[in-house]
Fold:
Amino acid sequence: MKRYWTSVVAVLLALSGIIVYYSIGTRNHLPEYKLETVQGNPVYGKAVNLSGSYFGNMRSEQLSVSMRGSVYRESNFTFRHYLADSGSWFYSQSGIKALVDKYSSFMRGKMNFDGFFRDKERVIYAEAERVGGRSEEAGVRISLDILDEKSGKESRIENTYPLKTAFDYLYLVDVQLVEDQVFLLVQQLYYEKPPGGKELFVIDINNGNLLRNELIHGPERGGNGGQTEISIIKPLIFSDTSQHIILDERTSSDVIDGHRNSVEKAASAAVDDEVPSKLYSFSYVTGEVVALPDHYSLAKKSGQRAYSLQNDMFYWAESDPASISLSRYDLALKKDDFDYTTITAEAIGGGVIKSVQISKDRVYVLLMKEERAMAAVLDLKDGMLLYSGKPAVVDDNSRSAEKLSAIRLLNLDVHERYNE
Structure:
């Protein structure tokens, strides 16, 4: 009997080895692709990553294609490769790798992207935590780790501040610094109820004193018997300092659970068109709330929208299959520059516009031409084409058309660390 089971195990191990061998061999023969420059400067295409699926050899594989080549999901399995290419969301965010490389000691243990702030002089990392349970000593404990980049000096402030309203826990939404005042915006949350409001803490960076504490809301506040939800649009990149944020206030008697305001927006093009929406700017310094013109609306029924808040400038893109319209609103000066330029699909490579993103000073566009993906990068300032590219087969002149027809790339991602 022992000899029998030994034989069975040996056969199973042999079969496993054969399966693994042929599996690896098949994978090693999957076509290689890369993003090929059609027009413009290839430097602007480094941040572009097209993703989708490969449908060849009666199989389906997820893959992504960039100027660095193609990556099939299952082949990118090592942790080192995972960090080095695109696996870690945190380390792929703009500015994080530079901080880790330069200030590895300061960055140790700091993993909340929303807790960072950086200007030309200082780096701040903030954390906020609800403490004290339901006792009279309940409060919000806030810690600030501060790095002076010129001197290299590190300092820390930690204090517990009393609750303005009762809630169960929170998460940090945004951190900004204006002169010597640190502004921390937090989201109030409950265990058995919908999310609460946004609460602002203003702290003196020199001594940790609480200078101001208030709840943030738009002027509607659930008028006409409806329920009001507020989400915010903030800078996507923590070095894009801004004294303002955008409040997206939605009021509807049809909304019951209110869970939409648990998701903060940094950049987006897909929103709920069924709930009335109104955008306001909110000044951290003065507390002033100002309504944006009605043409900046997230509740329009047609087209797609993308937006970005950068250094108190609110950029806005509206697109349909044939064109893109760019607008901007200066929150500090209250100056509107609506539809300052329009770009047609034909002018940037042809085909149909599928999606638009704004990142830093560029606009990233995914187009579909003859059922094949193309990417375009535009200058946010004037809409000029900086780069266009399309997938190509690497080092293979045979059956290229067949191999290209085997991929469906339906998404465009911007790898922020290549967008410096």
